[in-house]
Amino acid sequence: MRTTMRTDELLRSDEAISPYGPARATVEGTPLSPDELHKIDAYWRASLYLCLGMLYLKANPLLREPLTLEHTKPRLLGHWGSDAGQAFTYIHFNRLIKKYDLNAIYISGPGHGAPAVLSQAYLEGTYSEIYPEKSEDIAGLQRFFKQFSFPGGIGSHATPETPGSIHEGGELGYSISHAYGTVYDNPDLIALVMVGDGESETGPLATSWHSNKFLNPISDGAVLPILHLNGYKINNPTILARISHDELKALFVGYGYTPYFVEGSDHETMHQAMAATLEHCVLEIREIQQKARQTGKAFRPRWPVVILRSPKGWTAPREVDGHYLEGFWRAHQIPITDVGANPSHLKLLESWLRSYRPEELFDDNGRLVPELKALAPTGNRRMSANPVANGGLLRRLLDMPDFRDSAVKVEKPGATLAGNVPTLGNFLREVTRLNMGNFRVFGPDETQSNRLEALYDVTKKVWLAEYFPEDADGGNLAPEGRVMEMLSEHTVEGWLEGYLLSGRHGLINSYEPFIHVIDSMFNQHAKWLEKCNELPWRANVASLNLLITALVWRQDHNGFTHQDPGFLDVVANKSPDVVRIYLPPDANCLLSVGDHCLRSVNYANVIIADKQVHLQYLDMEAAIEHCTKGVGIWDWASNDQGAEPDVVMASCGDCPTMESLAATALLRQHLPGVRVRFVNVVDLFKLVPHTEHPHGLTDREFEAAASAPHTRARL
């Protein structure tokens, strides 16, 4: 077998995956008139000028005078590599939004890709509407440039401060799952999501391509992924940019998509190719949805995906001082790093900035000229202003059943057995029944195992792939289901985050030992919420609710691998304005906590509850009172009778409470003269001072507890 390629074969292979040359595209056509082509290219130049200005400039924003070192930032931070391809895609989709009156949002997956989306928000006017000091004039543009990656300014990701963003992209891998989360139950929405080719190498991103098997073309919207092959990460080639064209196509056919390629660097032919390709994809999406909605029969189509191959740092100088820049890893971050120490490079930067011809793009006052301004959609059709990306504006209150109706009858503490999580499952069934359009339950193949099977009385698990006859025997599969399972904690967590951030409600359930898979995702979402709390224009979204079960205490049969309660450590060190941790001791307390969490906003609520059968301690009214306080003395389990106790037994969580009560019973049986006080904690943050967490006890409460130990009014 021959294992090497002849030189001519290798050249042909390199050319097939090269980002350079006239456009090579799956879809043929030249839909843009000469005037449209000229204007779109000019708008793109305006976008790229803003991107470069954000990286370098703090003054002289439109180069109305020669560029000097004083006009540049003393420390250059940010990323250039993906900006051109992202802006290119965004602008071409704007044309289709206007032509077909599309409802669309844009999700930026490449790391540090904020300049591309910030430039669009500014050109569309959204940025100045939200931040009036960043006005559409020379002074506002200067402030817009200076704030980027600057002390007291904004970060280089699509942070919560970025209009139109629901996905920061600071940590790679979640763009696709977030995009799909936004379109579930959003039948008219298209989520245009740009996937970086570095990002595509992450496990979460690779798994999330399978989200298309859960998309119902009748009731859901559509995701249009753009895989952006610009070839390089920080200092390395990317894998998908260096495999053959046929192999790449086969990969996405295998994922269940129809891939459409747009490859090249020539501006004119690339504009035509991208315009033709995106329009074809939009019409294909509409055709799929129309067929499903007219027939009322859901099916799994091959949704389109676009593979855009363009040079890294497109439109930068190809070489600087004999070293490659555009089309190479050096264009990833700040492309020319030494403008402060090298006067010739400062001149090169000025020449590069002027190559976009800003004098043609902005009027005397510094505003985008009217003929270009007219290219963008208006109002809420602007992707930077779509309310879906500020989902709290669209959030409707859940129609909540009375959780008391699901209560376990408790006549005497410790005399009744019931399943805590199954009882919650009965309540979630009724929540689902009343909210079939804006509530879903997510989990990695564990809903049944976690004893939430009551949900299947009113709904099923979403499934758009093939069906076998045996699925009718307890498979609980249906295209229109409200339970979403996939054995990827990353993907289901991403779906839920996208679902919440676009204005809906939900809950994820998972095993305690494996919830660690999303430690970092949880961190990122908590940080997002923390920053949103500082932004008055960001409307409140429903809380992220995590139900964690299959606890460490009941894992002797599975062994050491399944024993890890450490997720609470991850949660506890997050901002106290965002995180809440609840460990209800019994079913009625779990119902009270569950109702509270589903009604809350802008929190990450973590609920720890064992799925097995447990002794029940509190009737419903006592449970509500106990959960409202968060911590309390259980008189029925104590024998101190108001006196100073000899021993305080304190517990938090259902299994520890059961064991602590057993220890208390032994103490009272064998040492009846010992005064024991039993304290139970539901809200973990009651154990810290109020200065460290809003739920913590105040100084007065501590003093009251110290001076009158048996008084519970302030507990």
What does this structure look like?
It is built from 21 helices and 21 strands. The strands form six sheets. The chain has a six-stranded mixed β-sheet with strand order 1-5-6-4-3-2, with helices on both faces. A six-stranded parallel β-sheet has the order 13-10-14-15-17-16, sandwiched between helices. The protein has 715 residues and is of the alpha/beta class. Mean pLDDT is 93; it is low at 1-12 and 708-715. Helix 2 packs across helix 4. Helix 20 (654-670) links the parallel strand 20 and strand 21.
Question: What secondary-structure arrangement, pairings included, does this model have?
Answer:
Layout: H1 7-16, E1 24-25, H2 34-56, H3 83-100, E2 103-108, H4 114-123, H5 126-130, H6 138-147, H7 175-183, E3 189-196, H8 203-208, E4 222-229, H9 245-255, E5 257-263, H10 267-295, E6 303-309, E7 319-320, E8 323-324, H11 343-354, H12 358-361, H13 370-373, E9 416-419, H14 420-434, E10 439-443, E11 461-462, E12 477-478, E13 483-485, H15 489-501, E14 505-511, H16 519-532, E15 544-549, H17 567-572, E16 579-582, H18 587-599, E17 604-608, E18 613-616, H19 620-629, E19 631-633, E20 647-652, H20 654-670, E21 676-681, H21 699-707
Parallel strand pairs: 2-3, 3-4, 4-6, 5-6, 10-13, 10-14, 11-12, 14-15, 15-17, 16-17, 20-21
Antiparallel strand pairs: 1-5, 7-8, 9-18, 19-21
